[in-house]
Amino acid sequence: MEETQVRVLCPECGKNWRTAPSELPETTANFHCPNCHASRRLSEFMRTEHDLRTVKQLG
Questions:
Q1: For residue 1, is it within any domain?
Q2: pTM
Q3: CB atoms < 10 A from the CB of 12, how many?
Q4: Among 3, 12, 7, 15, which Cα is nearest to 53's?
């Protein structure tokens, strides 16, 4: 079985990647970009509303 992945996009540096929702904190928690280390709420890093809903459901 393949695990669901969400698309993440840094609003500061533009880095984008995919990761499993289980590897992310709560959507209201601070998250740090692994590329530029920008710190914002995780919900601001979600690429689409669909990705945000998926994290909320499966995270």
A1: no
A2: 0.86
A3: 14
A4: 7
